Amino acid sequence: MNLFDDDLEKAAFFSGLKDLGVEKLVAEYSGSGDSGSIDSVYAENTEGDHVDLGDFHDRVENFMYEILTTKYVYDWYNNDGIIVTGK
């Protein structure tokens, strides 16, 4: 799975988030048995306030799924948890 077609598209995605004032992305997910899903995604600024992702919401959710799939063990969906990305 690769969310970005190239480095330019990846840079544009992160630049857009920076322009919105996003400091941190958060995904809350749940899992049990052999299934799981992201329950919610949201962004925070440097003060910890929520940032409206607007048109970025679906792309951020897909990005968080990619992180779960590629950066965590294959069975993330068998557990409950939360992931946070940021500085």
Q: Return the structural class.
A: alpha+beta
Shape: globular
Q: How much of the residues is beta strand, in percent?
A: 25-35%
Strand order of the largest sheet: 3-2-1-4
Question: Residue-averaged pLDDT, rounded?
Answer: 82
Low-pLDDT ranges: none
Helix content: 25-40%
> Termini separation (Å)?
24 Å
Number of helices: 2
Main beta sheet strand tally, sense and closure: 4 strands, antiparallel
- The run of helices and strands is HEEEHE
| Strands, total number | 4
Over the alpha carbons, how many angstroms does the gyration radius reach?
13 Å
Describe the structure.
There is one protein chain. Helices cover 32% and strands 31% of the residues. With 87 residues, it is an alpha+beta fold. Strand 1 and strand 2 form a beta hairpin.
